[in-house]
Specification:
Rossmann fold, DNA polymerase, domain 1, alpha/beta, 6 strands
Length: 223
Amino acid sequence: MLLKAVFWDLDGTLIDSEPLWHNGEFEIAAANNGTWSEDLGWECSGTPVPDVARRMIEHGCTLSVEEIDRQLKQYVFDQEKIHMPWIDGVTDVLRALKGAGIPSMLVSTSPRPIVENVLDAAPGLFAGYVCGDDDAKHKPDPAPYLLAASKLGIAREDMAKCVVLEDTLVGLTAGAASGATTIAQTCTIRTDTSAGPQFASINGYAGIDPAALDGFVRQRLEA
């Protein structure tokens, strides 16, 4: 295989957690004189939580950025402890990659406890992770993906042989800027990413396995 590694975004790509974030936003806004909507929640998908907090304050929430950040992350962490909302078929892909000797790395702007909770729910399936608490610029900067590659000893000139799976334009921009063969997952996102910088798009994980991901790399290199 030409495929060297697969880098996974978290929310909307590995797990269908965006509804959890949005539910938390609704609860926090309602309890603190703010107004919020599903459309606003989706507009904020893929952005760092402090940026979401600033939008919530613009819409009347009386808490500080720091307090919204703390409460929202805690809400999602607690909900995912109760039930990890894996996207259908994704753990099968992770197991197949491990069986093929292809490392998976989780690359998320979520805080360390949330990311480690996901790794605990998929023991042995990830080679490592990069999270929002690491010393790297956040998406849409490519830094998180380049940091993940460096942890695997993959040079930047070999990024085209790596696949990035993302769902938001913010994440797709980061993946493409890293040089990776970036694939848009569209099965959970409610915003149109068709004009993004991705090499290809998929809708769910039916038919996705190491050979299919290797095929995207080969198509990209031959293009």
